[in-house]
């Protein structure tokens, strides 16, 4: 009898100090206590494999995160076979929730060569991570992908991301797990926005949609504003979104020190009615100079030893980087949106319409069924899909090639004949542009005059750039993208290196 009483008291004591769980309702996050929840998060990946398997380090970091004012972390990779009890408890004690990526280094959904996959191996690995973390009250959500799509041509992979979310939600429900939100972390790409955002949430069957959408955005740099930074466009695209949306990475570092002024927009009157907060990139200082803390002075990049990787110490007592750490702490200290209580909130926003096909920018038909596990794209380059593939590009239903594809004769043409025709087109179309270039070059030379120190253009031939011209967008890259904005124009993509957790 006494032992039962002690056990009951211990259970009540643990429950009294446990964090309330997080759930998604409509376009907002709520705690199990009925309060709207806003994210003040940090990207946390000290080591490639699993930063949540070293209890002593977690306790040190969690304590300083509490001082910073953080209430969430994002972890990109974990080892589901490791014990995470102590680390998750340490972060829970500090009031910190955890967002986890379900994928690992060998299970990403990738749009490789137009042939993305969602297979049984990926499914099993995702399920293992969910199995390992569903029991923790401070598990806030799972990501089924991070920056899978980066340019419009990658849109063929979108159905596979959505299928992964569908299947992991079904797995969660079949196991009787808590209704932990499942979502996606997207590249902030002007080519994909807002098509991908809308696609992942569209449709009447919510079991096929993500529970939240998030964006890795580095648009607000230095002393910018809501209008100049481009955040006004992000807000416009999200104003009628029916599920929670937040920044899964942010914190531009092109202007030092970082002041994190964007937090006042995200967690303030400009955006807090729509957005659910932000996760700052990142906790540890690395070669990319995004860190908020360091565990010691940088060492030689070739140095080896315990907890040393890439020229940086990755364990020990965290020391704030001045003044970035303090700047973020001050921002968060002044921002405490209350939102709305769950009882007073009645979701009214409807799922967005599935985007229509825009050749080269969005190649998924709005009525295209989602692929099943192990199903591949049959012909991602054609107008319609053939066979049993359901992740088709443009065109009508599945089965045989749809009638609204380019033409039936084109579909039936053998690859050999089509290849010969393409070669003929190249041959006949090559000479005229070449001759035109030669003539243009000759005319250009005629307008040049020779000076004593070399060839320079004559004054009459100097060309002024029109102030209304937008800068040319460079080709896509696997490096991190950031955007530069003109106050009165939509965003233009520029490329800035930032190592990705892959």
Automatic annotation (TrEMBL):
<feature type="transmembrane region" description="Helical">
    <location>
        <begin position="430"/>
        <end position="448"/>
    </location>
</feature>
<feature type="region of interest" description="Disordered">
    <location>
        <begin position="372"/>
        <end position="418"/>
    </location>
</feature>
<keyword id="KW-0472">Membrane</keyword>
<dbReference type="Pfam" id="PF03198">
    <property type="entry name" value="Glyco_hydro_72"/>
</dbReference>
<keyword id="KW-1133">Transmembrane helix</keyword>
<keyword id="KW-0336">GPI-anchor</keyword>
<comment type="function">
    <text>Splits internally a 1,3-beta-glucan molecule and transfers the newly generated reducing end (the donor) to the non-reducing end of another 1,3-beta-glucan molecule (the acceptor) forming a 1,3-beta linkage, resulting in the elongation of 1,3-beta-glucan chains in the cell wall.</text>
</comment>
<dbReference type="InterPro" id="IPR017853">
    <property type="entry name" value="GH"/>
</dbReference>
<feature type="region of interest" description="Disordered">
    <location>
        <begin position="465"/>
        <end position="502"/>
    </location>
</feature>
<keyword id="KW-0808">Transferase</keyword>
<keyword id="KW-1015">Disulfide bond</keyword>
<feature type="compositionally biased region" description="Low complexity">
    <location>
        <begin position="400"/>
        <end position="416"/>
    </location>
</feature>
<dbReference type="InterPro" id="IPR004886">
    <property type="entry name" value="Glucanosyltransferase"/>
</dbReference>
<dbReference type="GO" id="GO:0042124">
    <property type="term" value="F:1,3-beta-glucanosyltransferase activity"/>
</dbReference>
<keyword id="KW-0812">Transmembrane</keyword>
<keyword id="KW-0325">Glycoprotein</keyword>
<dbReference type="GO" id="GO:0098552">
    <property type="term" value="C:side of membrane"/>
</dbReference>
<dbReference type="GO" id="GO:0071970">
    <property type="term" value="P:fungal-type cell wall (1-&gt;3)-beta-D-glucan biosynthetic process"/>
</dbReference>
<keyword id="KW-0449">Lipoprotein</keyword>
<feature type="compositionally biased region" description="Low complexity">
    <location>
        <begin position="466"/>
        <end position="480"/>
    </location>
</feature>
<feature type="signal peptide">
    <location>
        <begin position="1"/>
        <end position="18"/>
    </location>
</feature>
<dbReference type="GO" id="GO:0005886">
    <property type="term" value="C:plasma membrane"/>
</dbReference>
<protein>
    <recommendedName>
        <fullName>1,3-beta-glucanosyltransferase</fullName>
        <ecNumber>2.4.1.-</ecNumber>
    </recommendedName>
</protein>
<keyword id="KW-0732">Signal</keyword>
<comment type="similarity">
    <text>Belongs to the glycosyl hydrolase 72 family.</text>
</comment>
<dbReference type="GO" id="GO:0031505">
    <property type="term" value="P:fungal-type cell wall organization"/>
</dbReference>
């Amino acid at each position: 009898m006494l032992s039962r009483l002690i056990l009951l008291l211990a259970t009540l004591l643990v429950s009294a100090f446990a964090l309330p769980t997080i759930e998604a309702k409509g376009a907002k996050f709520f705690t199990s206590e009925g309060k709207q929840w806003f994210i003040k998060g940090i990207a946390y990946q000290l080591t490639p494999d699993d930063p949540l398997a070293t209890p002593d380090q977690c306790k040190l970091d969690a304590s300083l995160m509490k001082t910073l004012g953080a209430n969430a972390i994002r972890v990109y990779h974990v080892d589901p076979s490791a014990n995470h009890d102590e680390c998750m408890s340490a972060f829970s004690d500090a009031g910190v929730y955890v967002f986890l990526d379900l994928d690992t280094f060998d299970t990403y959904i990738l749009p490789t060569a137009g042939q993305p996959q969602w297979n049984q191996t990926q499914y099993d690995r995702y399920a293992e991570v969910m199995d390992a973390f569903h029991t923790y009250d401070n598990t806030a959500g799972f990501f089924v992908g991070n920056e899978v799509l980066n340019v419009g041509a990658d849109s063929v992979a979108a159905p596979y991301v959505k299928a992964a979310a569908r299947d992991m939600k079904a797995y969660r429900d079949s196991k009787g797990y808590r209704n932990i939100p499942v979502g996606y972390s997207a590249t902030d790409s002007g080519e994909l926005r807002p098509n991908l955002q809308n696609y992942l949430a569209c449709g009447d069957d919510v079991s096929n949609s993500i529970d939240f959408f998030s964006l890795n955005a580095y648009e607000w740099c230095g002393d910018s504003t809501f209008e100049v930074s481009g955040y006004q466009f992000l807000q416009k695209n999200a104003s009628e979104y029916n599920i929670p949306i937040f920044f899964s990475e942010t914190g531009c570092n092109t202007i030092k020190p970082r002041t994190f002024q964007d937090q006042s927009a995200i967690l303030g009157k400009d955006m807090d009615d729509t957005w659910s907060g932000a996760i700052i990139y990142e906790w540890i200082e690395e070669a990319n100079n995004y860190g908020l803390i360091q565990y010691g002075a940088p060492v030689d990049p070739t140095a080896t030893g315990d907890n040393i990787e890439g020229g940086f110490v990755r364990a020990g007592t965290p020391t704030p980087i001045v003044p970035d750490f303090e700047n973020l702490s001050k921002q968060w200290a002044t921002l405490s949106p209350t939102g709305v209580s769950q009882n007073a909130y009645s979701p009214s926003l409807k799922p967005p319409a599935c985007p229509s096909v825009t050749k080269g920018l969005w190649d998924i038909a709005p009525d295209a069924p989602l692929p099943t596990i192990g199903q591949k794209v049959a012909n991602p380059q054609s107008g319609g899909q053939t066979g049993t593939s359901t992740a088709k590009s443009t065109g009508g239903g599945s089965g045989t090639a749809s009638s609204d594809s380019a033409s039936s004769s084109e579909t039936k043409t053998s690859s050999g004949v089509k290849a010969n025709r393409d070669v003929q087109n190249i041959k006949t179309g090559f000479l005229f542009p070449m001759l035109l270039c030669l003539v243009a070059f000759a005319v250009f030379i005629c307008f040049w005059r020779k000076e004593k120190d070399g060839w320079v253009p004559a004054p009459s031939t100097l060309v002024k750039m029109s102030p209304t011209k937008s800068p040319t967008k460079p080709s896509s890259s696997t490096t991190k993208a950031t955007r530069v904005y003109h106050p009165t124009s939509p965003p233009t993509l520029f490329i800035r290196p930032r190592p990705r957790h892959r």
